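Example record

One chain of 238 residues, shown exactly as stored in the release files.
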Amino acid sequence: MNAAFFLVGTNVKPCFVDPKEVVYIGRALENTIVLQSPYVSRKHASIRCQNDQFLLSDLQSTNGTFVNTEKITQKLLDVGDKIRVGSFILNFLDRKTLLDRYGHWAEIATLDEAVTTEINRVKNALSDLSGKLSYLNPIELIQMINLGKKTGVLSIVGDNGGEGTIKVNNGEIYSAAHTHSGKNLQGEHAVYRILTIKEGSFIFKFKDPENLSTHEMIPMSTMNLLMEGCRLMDEGQI
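Predicted structure tokens for this chain:
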């Protein structure tokens, strides 16, 4: 096999997919790609070369492995496939596609942390993040934005008519609004209601970080907002 293949994702160190080795993906430190998230199993998935193709296998993970929008047990990968493990997205790319998307940074044989930073910076500048909530739910989206310390505006439109907007600075939510059937919510109460939207679409528009005063911020960390929202949903209060 002469072609070179890579796994590239936001907040994930790029990985060369060696056809002679098995790539293991999971939460445990001994994996090839380590993804620190409670939604990722210790050994979640693997990729191995089989007859000059790469086979992705789910390793009986708790939350499943997805390719594009399909939950899989095993799948032969195609260039451009998006692998979702927990809230992480890994793009399966060949060298040509990597160069087309990310420019000369991909020319470096060893993709170290400095190159990772530049790849993510260019990626964020090129396109916004959008999709269906059936692919990434609001909790997974916000967790991914928080872990990546991203800045921007997350807009969610539910199929039931509800709409929500969450503004984030360096991964921390500082403003939120939710509207449904003429009722308007602001602040943390808007965040909790947005978390309940199960079907619909989202778009996250990247922005440069801002200098905000304390009074502009919701007085709870993003992770505490998520935990409180999950508690309220579990208890049927929202």
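Notes: The helical segments are 95-102, 113-126, 138-147, 187-195, 222-234.
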